[in-house]
Amino acid sequence: MTIPYNIPISDLDYCLEQLLDHKPPKILPPETIQHLCHTLKTQLLSVPNIMPLQSPISIVGDIHGQFHDLLEIFQIGGSPPSTNYLFLGDYVDRGYYSVETISLLIALKLRYPDRVFLIRGNHESRTITTNYGFYTEVLNKYNGSAEVWTYITDLFDYLPLGATIDGKIFAAHGGLSPSCQQLDQIRALDRFREIPHDGIMADLVWSDPDTEILDFKLSPRGAGYLFGLDVINKFCHDNDLMQMVRAHQLCNEGYTSYWKGKCLTVWSAPNYCYRCGNRASVLEILYYSGESKSMGEPNANENDVKYDDYKNRFEDSIVHKVQGVLPGQFFNIFEASPENDEDTSKGKGVNGINSDEELVGNGDFFCSYFKERPRKQHVEYFL
Amino acid sequence: MSQDNQEQSVSSKESTSKSKTVFTMPGNRPGIQAVHVNAAREMVRLHTQGRRPPSSTTASTAVKGPVPPLPSTASSFPGASPHPHVSIPEGCKNPQCTHCGKVIIPAPQSSYPIQDTPAIAVKNWKIYTIKKPILNSTELEDLEARFHFPLPEMIFGNSRVKIVNEVSGESIEFNALDALDSLDSESHLKVSYHKEWLDSRRSEREKKEKEERGEVESRDLREFTDKLDTIEPYDWTYSPNYKGTTNIKFSESSQEIPIHRLTQPDPILFFDEAVLFEDELADNGISILNYKIRVMPTCLLLLCRFYLRIDNVIFRIRDTRVFVDFDQDLVIRDYRQQEYEYSELLKSVQRKSIGNDPKKLFRDHDWVSKNIPTINKVVESNQ
């Protein structure tokens, strides 16, 4: 039997300080990560697969290791514990700071367990992280040891799969599953495992909405689903829900509203992969309103939004009509952090394109005087 | 400094330390002090000094210490003058180095959306590149009539590279949308766990049929799974058959791209690279089309590469190289296809036992390209 044990708050604050007060952020030692992961695992054991949460809460989509853009979110949307946060998964892979991002989120979750909530995305998995960068990043940052990757991916198996907000909004990473009609079917799953290739657990983190169809369609890739209007209407009706909020899909605007706000995509990685130039957003849910008749519809032009409109952004305003959200909701849109910008101009690559470590040159003397990396123009004698 | 001021600074320090106890953001900096101002002045002095070209005056004042020898830019190519004729086209704001005539290409501007349109002209040839963010939802909607299949996750539809001969009017361009027009109508490839996935679906259906025989099934979401079928087949790997959008009359040629001219250390007047489209195949690998271009005093090389990796299935590379000789207005186009089984490459990596992270190599397109066989090659020229 494990003895219930909590890490002292001062230790957690120290971890947060290491990550937040240094530039570049200091990574936590492997023993600390092990400790944090172990403690969080014991806490997550008693958390149900679908967490019942209440508004007000801010919902964050994919982050993908863009640590500085995560800090940007806290900057614009308020930081825990003054703001409640629900993260929809995909914390690691692709960005340069997966280790720092997941470390910060773990530390925050332990520090403010009633304010920060994490659910699982498709990248919170062993196979995916070996293919898309997190594993490699751990090897690079921890002197070739995969230990930290093991602790963190083991922790991923304990993350819950979804959440409800005020019992009316269902939040998950991907979408709905044809094998799942009732939320109770998700609640009954044994989630403490690697994400399988099929079944409810896989579909929850994989599937996408599609406005062109009504029912479920198989993806031509040979695995995975698309779901349509009838599916979401039936699911919402059967489970007494108003809306589904999910992440998983990149969009230039940082958010997408489907079917008059019945389903929302929130995407929180601006300038994704340091090259997409897209915006990102956080979905702020201030309150839940029982009225369904004033459901938003994206029927207004973004250019019509005046600064004053933001005063009553949660009410029936033009902002609302542009974003296509329900009353009490608002997509807080933001752009990439200056650090993201910096990484972009350095031309470091993601997923293996032009991953030129040489660029970190010693540069001229005044560059080192400025303690900055020289902004060298990348030139390559490719063949 | 008056006492009041000191008191104020003390009290402000107290307040910052107080706010530190909650989760604060980094970046609280003290005010500017005189010593900082002096340091800043010194930096500016060093900075401006460092930027100044090594003029004759500095040479006459006899700089102490070893002067690093200038990198040899002398080309072994006969007729290549050290100061080639480099003209700047209209609209190109790039300054020339007063010293060597080299075109100074500025680092990408740190603005979002990223917008930079560097261009260069050498002899009769003009080279344009445009890099823009991914398409937004309005632009994507406009494409619905042109493409009847789900488009890649990231489409840089406004990015392009174009090479134009101002005299003859010959031009060749590479862009994402034309590449997507060239896809096959479907792909025989499936993801690695496709069979497993289908089998599990089949067994689920059998189970359901049994249930139906035994008891009255409530009408639920499963009714949709009866009609479950894939959406219209399309090439979900996005493998283009694209050799550029061009008006050049190419004919098959025995004249290969002269590698020796590309391997000599000619100065690169202009270099650029960009992604045209990219899709992560729902985390089953990657499908990406990108280009790289480098312009030397007498020739240029453009490589437009399609790279496909389906995890545990296949690697596929389709390279289009365009070589232009500025003196002879000669254009050579080299198109080659490479394909290899995923398992075969993994085996050969394991045989050579290169590191403990083979998948890192699989993200390195150049490495993969060098290590898999070519299955098809076509060389064409305009002469």
Automatic annotation (TrEMBL), chain A:
Pfam families: Metallophos
Gene source species: Spathaspora passalidarum (strain NRRL Y-27907 / 11-Y1)
Keyword set includes Ribosomal protein: no
Keywords of the record: Hydrolase, Manganese, Metal-binding
Name the UniProt record assigns to this protein: Serine/threonine-protein phosphatase
Domain Serine/threonine specific protein phosphatases: 119-124
GO cellular component terms attached to this protein's record: mitochondrial outer membrane
InterPro entries: Calcineurin-like_PHP, Metallo-depent_PP-like, PPA2-like, Ser/Thr-sp_prot-phosphatase
PANTHER family membership: SERINE/THREONINE-PROTEIN PHOSPHATASE PP2A-RELATED
GO molecular function terms noted in the UniProt entry: metal ion binding; protein serine/threonine phosphatase activity
UniProtKB/TrEMBL annotation, chain B:
GO terms of biological process kind: negative regulation of TORC1 signaling; TOR signaling
A Pfam family recorded for this sequence: TIP41
Stretches with biased composition (Low complexity): 1-22
Segments of this protein annotated with the region Disordered: 1-31, 47-87
Matching InterPro entries: Phosphatase_reg/MetRdx (IPR051330), TIP41-like (IPR007303)
GO cellular component: cytosol
Annotated family: Belongs to the TIP41 family.
Record PANTHER family: GAF/PUTATIVE CYTOSKELETAL PROTEIN (PTHR21021), TIP41-LIKE PROTEIN (PTHR21021:SF16)
Name of protein: Type 2A phosphatase activator TIP41
Native source species: Spathaspora passalidarum (strain NRRL Y-27907 / 11-Y1)
